[in-house]
Structures are given as C-alpha cells and as structure tokens.
Amino acid sequence: MTNSFPYSQNPNFPERYISPEKLFSYLQDNYSDYIKEVGKSSLGKPIYMLTLGNGNIKVAAWSQMHGNESTATLAMLDLLTIFEKNPELQDKLFSLIQLDFIFMLNPDGSEAWTRRNAYDIDINRDFIRDSSIEIRVLKSIVLNGNYSYLLNLHDQRTIFTTDGIHPATLSFLSPSENLERDLTENRKKSMAVIAAIYMQLKQILPNRIAKYTDEFYPTSSGDNFMKSGIPSILFEGGFYENDLDRKKTREYYTHALYFALKAISVLKGDTLSYETYFDIPQNRETHFDLIYRNVKLNTEFECIMDIAVQYREILDDDKNLTYQPYVVEVGDLNHKKGWKEIDCTDKKFISLKKFPKLDSLVDFKIE
To answer: Which parts of the chain sit beneath pLDDT 70?
Structure first.
C-alpha cells in the first residue's frame, strides 16, 4: 500500500458482522482506560465512546448510526491495531488532536443487521424530531463538546461508480447548510480535509473515490451539525470489484480515517486547497450487482428482456452474513451496467413461473 502507513487488520474482527457484545467485551478488555458509556440504546444496550489524545483540536466521530454499515467500526478497530504496532504514528497525532469515537451508535440495529433502530427509526433522519434515544445521545455529546470537526461514518450501496466504469469504493461529502448549498466557511473547512484525504488516497485507490451529492437534507445529522457551526465530513464506504465482503473497502477506509485525522491535525481549521474538493468526481448511479441480458421468457408471445439482480445481506440464525440475490428490475436495461453480466441469447429460462417477479428471491435458472 504505502510505506508511511502499514495496514494491519484487527484479527479479532475478521467479518463484516460485529456482535455488540463481542465489541463491548473487546473494548473493556483492551481499552478500559479510554472508554466510557455515554448512553443506552432503545433496548438498553450500552453505547460506548473511546477517547484518544489530549490535543486542542477536538474531533468527534461515530460509526454504525445505521446498524448494517459496519465498515467504519472495523476501520477504527484496525486503526487501533496499527497504532499498537506503530506507536510513532499516533504519538504526534494525538498530541495535537483529541478523538472521541462513538462505537456503534445503533447497537440494536447492529445486532439485527438492520439500517434502522429497534423502533424502525432512521436515526440519520431524526435530528429535528428527536424520536430516537440514540440521536439524543449523539446530539448531547456533539453539541456540548466544543468540537472542531465531526466525522459522520457510513457505508453506501454497490450501485455507485465514479465514472460509469469504476466503483465508488469511497465517497465523501461536505454537507450543505441550506437548500441553496451555499459555500460557507465551515463547508470550506470540511472540503479542505476531504481534499487532503483525496490527494493521499488517490495514489493507492485511483478512479475509485467520489463525492456524494450535496443536496440539503433538512432532517439529517450531518447537514444540521454543519448548520450548527461544526465542520462535518461524511464518509461512505462502497464497493470494490469482486469484494462483497468489503475487505478491500475496509482497508482503504482505514487509510482514509487516518489521513482525515492527520489532515485535521495539520490544517487546524484552515481551508488550504479546499478547491481540490471540486476535482473529485460525483457518485453516479450506474450499476446493478448482476444483469442477465437477453432473457427469453416462456410466454405465449415472444418476450425478451434484461433482468437485474441485487444481493441483499441477510443475517442467518448463526449470525453469519449471507448474500441473497433478489430481482430488482426487468425490461430494457441497456442504460445500466452490471458488475457481472450474463448473455442469455439462445439459452433457456427455467422457472416454475412465466416471468421473474420484482422484489423476489431469484428462483430461476439459465441453461
């Protein structure tokens, strides 16, 4: 990767799914001096925050606001492993900054591998109403913590590319503060950090870094924290070719997290080179996981169509993630691409049904 940042995966967490109990036990066993319970979830699970460093620049970050988006949690665990093996990487960094990292803001959703919390509330769209306990915990910490920067850490779907060809493995955003998407000083501060991440990361992840749409979302956390006066940076961990388990994404996410902290420690609120942010390509929604092309159905009339499939992440009874193929679109899909495509010309569509039903598990074969 890069000699200045030797990547190491935390061996205790090799899989995407993380049991809250396992995570909490690990943090208590290894970082008891650095963690504290900052709240409880809707079902009473503890929410922990880890604090590193004693610098003047305070940074708050949170992972798994959406329970089925675990890459940031894994990246932070990897980063801790890297710091243990390479203490020189953290010594100077944490003399300049203090990082408050909220692990697994939504432990109920994380345990069930669902986006929303136990009461089906999307915490990231609950900033105004405060219906969820979890958003109240986050707001209390952030709005009373005198933070210089915020890192809002998420995952995104496999549908996005940077250019219609390469996947958007990582995407970033400096959120808007209003409907007009004004270029405010706080946005420039977060853009400068993203620009610094981009300049470092594009050397090792070419053509796979994008920026997310800056459409203003009135109820979302990032937009409202930015509106409250704190520069906020959205991370989105996406897809890398042939990597449904996101092991490569996890690796690059860890790099990005480190580069972000380093940039924050250097910039100290400056907006230096923020204009580079606009060089980053915007996410494009171009791909399905799989497209069957030119499928001839078993109908009384001639019917040839394309069938698009997306894999859904299903947690089985043993808490293992499985990837189940679901039909998400049919018809003429020439305007879209698939990460995998199968040409079914002169092949037989074998199914108990005459046609594939939308939003249903793939139950046909092509022979």
So the answer is: 1-4
